[in-house]
């Protein structure tokens, strides 16, 4: 399936859950223009309430939200509607969370900022169809490494010594990496 307009109105419902309000607003407009009937939430609690009140056919959920993990919304969505298709967005991608997202029912896992066309392709790609092409400008290996270090640093409450221990690197090396700007 490649065209949303071929679906019945109840099958075009889309829930967007993200705490980045400008991104959420832009994505809402973009998806509305592409034929989806969009509802939005900016918290896990709001996403769960939207799933319970009117379970959508599609969902795009940010992984890290202010009040918790977006995977809770994906799990609730698939409990209420097993055929629903969800895409998880994140700025802190790693293999473990990607695997968890897929196990909970997500059909794809995209790095932020994701293009609306890429999101639509992921939502509408059937299991029998060929996977979407890789992005034109994927993150560099240096950027992926930097993102991972930043994520672990945040999870360790910005404690350099604890982060260095968990990453198995020297504290001074970590301090030098943290002092630099993010690679492109």
TrEMBL record:
Gene3D superfamilies in UniProt: 3.40.50.2300, Homeodomain-like
Keyword tRNA-binding listed: no
InterPro entries documented for this protein: ActR_PrrA_rreg, Bact_response_regulator, CheY-like_superfamily, Sig_transdc_resp-reg_receiver
Classification via PROSITE patterns: RESPONSE_REGULATORY
Residues bearing the modification 4-aspartylphosphate: 62
Pfam families noted in UniProt: Response_reg
Stretches that traverse the bilayer: none
The Response regulatory domain, residue ranges: 13-127
GO molecular function, a single term: DNA binding
GO biological process: phosphorelay signal transduction system
Alphabetical UniProt keywords: DNA-binding, Phosphoprotein, Transcription, Transcription regulation, Two-component regulatory system
Protein known as: DNA binding response regulator PrrA (RegA)
